User: Fold this.
Amino acid sequence: MAEYFPEVKKPIAYEGPNSKNPLAFKYYNPKEKVLGKTMAQHLRFAVCYWHTFRGTGADMFGSQTLFRNFRSGSDEMKIAEQTLEAAFEFYQKLGVGFWCFHDTDIAPEADTLSETNKRLDHIVSLAKKYQKNTGVKLLWGTCNLFSHPRFMAGAGTNPSPEVFAFATAKVKKALEITHELDGAGYVFWGGREGYDTLLNTDMKRELDHLALFLQMAVDYKKKIGFKGQFYIEPKPKEPTKHQYDFDSASCYAFLQHYKLVEHFKLNIEANHATLAGHTFHHELAFAAINGLLGSVDANRGDLLLGWDTDQFPTDLYDTTLAMYIILKAGGFTTGGLNFDAHVRRQSIDPIDLFYAHIGAMDAFARGLKIAEKLLKDKVFEKAIAQRYAGWNKDLGKKIESKKVSFVELAKYAEEHGEPKLQSGRQELLENILNDYIK
Ligand code: XUL
Ligand code: CO
Assistant:
C-alpha cells in the first residue's frame, strides 16, 4: 500500500493545551465526556473530498498551485483510485469519523451516463472496502449539478426539460451510491438553481420545477429504502446572482409552500450565512427554532471579501456560539461538522492540510467546552428570562393566552400610561461571554 502523507508518521493525538507540537490536538480529546457524550460523538467531524483532495489552488487570476502526489500520472481512473486511497489515509491519520463527497469528486465523468455510472460503481466498491477497514463513515453524499456546461442554466430549474431529465439521472445515481455507502444523509445544494436576470427568467415556473425535482427525489429515496436525512444547503448568491435557497428563512418558506418540509432539514454553512448578510449564529438559531437544524458546513468567510472564501474555522466566538445553539437544540443526530473549507493558494504543502484541520477541530472542541459552561451556568438563559419576565405576569399571560384584543389592550395602555423601560445589557453580556472564552 502506498503512503501519501509520510510526513505524518502516526495518528494525530491529543496532547493537551500546553503541547507545542503542531501535529497534536490541544483541545480535541475524542474520548473526553462533555454533557454525557464524548467529544467525538458531539462534533462528528467530516473531511470534504472536493476541497481537500481535489482542490488545485487555482483562482480567477491564476492556475494550479497545489500539486499532490496522489494525482500523479495520466490515467484518470488510476488517479481516482489513488486519491481515494490517500483520502482514507488522511481520515485515519487525522482521526475523523466521517467524509463527504460529490459524485464527480470521486470518479471523473465519462462520455455517456452509463459509462460514468460504471466508473462510480467501481470507485464506490473500493470506498466500501475502505469504510469497512477503517470504520470511517459517510456523513453525506451529493451530486454536482453545477460544474458541467450542461448545467449552466441550472438543473431542477433549467429552462430545458432535457436538462431537467439529465439532472434527475445524476441525482438518482448519487442517491443510489450514497445508499450503497450507508450515508447518514444526502445534501441538495442548489448551485446554479437561481437566476442572473429576470429578463430571461420565469421565476414562478422555475420554483415549481425545483419543488417537483425535490419531490421526485423524496419518492425515489422511499423506493430504494434510503433512510438517510435529506438536507438543503442555503446560499444567497454565487454562482448565480440570486440563488433560490437564499438563507434558512427562504428555504423554510419554500419547503412549507411546496409541502416538502417534513422531508428536509438544513445544512447550514458559516460562509453562506455571512454572504446572506447574517451571522452563522443567526442561521443556526433560525434553523433550530423551526426544527430544521440538521448538519453544518464548518468554515468561515472574510468580511472584507464579498465571496465564498471557504476558510478553515478558527474564530472562537463563531465556534462557541455555534456549539451553544447545537447543544441547546439537543446536538447532532444524523448531521455533523463537515469542513467545507480549503487551504489558501499559498499553503502548498500536504502538511498544511493537517494543520488546517487540526486547528479547526481544536477551535470547535474549545467552542464545545465553552458552550457547555455557558449552558451549565445558564448565562444567557437567566438574562433572557429576566428580559421577558413580563410575559409570565398578568398582562403578558393574558396576551399570550389570546384572551384579549386591541380594545382591552388599548384601554390598559391608556390607564397605565408610559411603560417602564429596562436595559438590554448587551455590553455586560458581551463582557461575560469574553470571560468564558479564554
Ligand atoms: C458551495 C458549497 C458546496 C456544497 C455541496 O458553496 O458549499 O460545496 O456544500 O455541494
Ligand atoms: Co457547503
Summary: The first strand starts at residue 13 and ends at 14. The mean pLDDT is 98. The CA atoms of residues 33 and 39 lie 6 Å apart.
